[in-house]
UniProtKB/TrEMBL annotation:
Family under the similarity heading: Belongs to the protease inhibitor I3 (leguminous Kunitz-type inhibitor) family.
Keyword check for tRNA processing: no
Domain of life: Eukaryota
Organism: Trema orientale (Charcoal tree)
Region forming the signal peptide: 1-26
InterPro entries the record matches: Kunitz_inhibitor_STI-like_sf, Prot_inh_Kunz-lg
Protein name (record): Proteinase inhibitor I3, Kunitz legume
Length: 203
């Protein structure tokens, strides 16, 4: 075997080692748990609620300006939210895991001829006081992917982040935590502020 073949063999060995380490790391990441202590699963419906009800009600679609698209926001404390489903980025993964990217979409349809998948708004129309709003539509590539992280020491309280690092590990994103802001009496979901502690209740 000549030197070039040896180098190729060594390089391939490192590639397979990196793949194996990545796969092992993915398995070790904790699943996100719902309020009954069960892992969140792909395609199953959940209501996203605030862990502290004084900060508003469940997440829902908001008609922000009287025309499409709809935005992500919160109802008042007593109203019901709209269920969502999760779709992990990793093919074949059916469990939503902490720090792993996924798409999240409201169940059902709207009068708008577009997806109800969450996405980070782009441009001045989707920005309020420098904060990026969460709109809907499955056409934003990186803008559609979020992840969930533990919020404090409680077993089932989390915060949601926008940071699609799993899609592009070498990219530099202006990541942000999911929070809320008021606009014309409506509570809208937005990044670049304080994070909201949330829980997931299976429907």
């Amino acid at each position: 075997m000549n030197m070039n073949m040896k180098l190729i063999g060594i390089s391939l060995s490192f590639v397979w080692l990196a793949v194996a380490i990545a796969a092992t790391s993915a398995q070790e990441l904790s699943p996100v748990l719902d309020t009954s202590g069960q892992p969140l699963r792909r395609g199953v419906e959940y209501i996203i609620k605030l862990a502290i009800t004084d900060n508003g009600g469940p997440f829902t679609l908001i008609d922000r300006k009287g025309y499409c698209p709809f935005y992500v926001g919160q109802r008042n404390v007593t109203a019901d939210g709209i269920p969502v489903t999760f779709s992990p980025f990793e093919e074949g993964e059916n469990i939503v895991r902490e720090l792993k990217n996924f798409k999240v979409a409201f169940s059902g349809a709207t009068i708008c001829a577009q997806s109800t998948t969450w996405k980070v708004g782009q441009g001045e129309a989707d920005t309020v006081d420098g904060r990026r709003l969460i709109a809907t539509g499955d056409n934003a590539r990186y803008g559609n992917y979020f992840y969930i992280n533990k919020d404090g020491d409680f077993a089932d309280i989390y915060r949601m982040e926008w940071c699609p690092a799993e899609l592009c590990p070498t990219c530099r994103f202006r990541c942000g935590s999911l929070g809320s802001l008021f606009e014309n009496g409506k509570r809208l979901a937005a990044l670049d502020g304080s994070a909201l502690p949330i829980v997931f209740e299976r429907v």
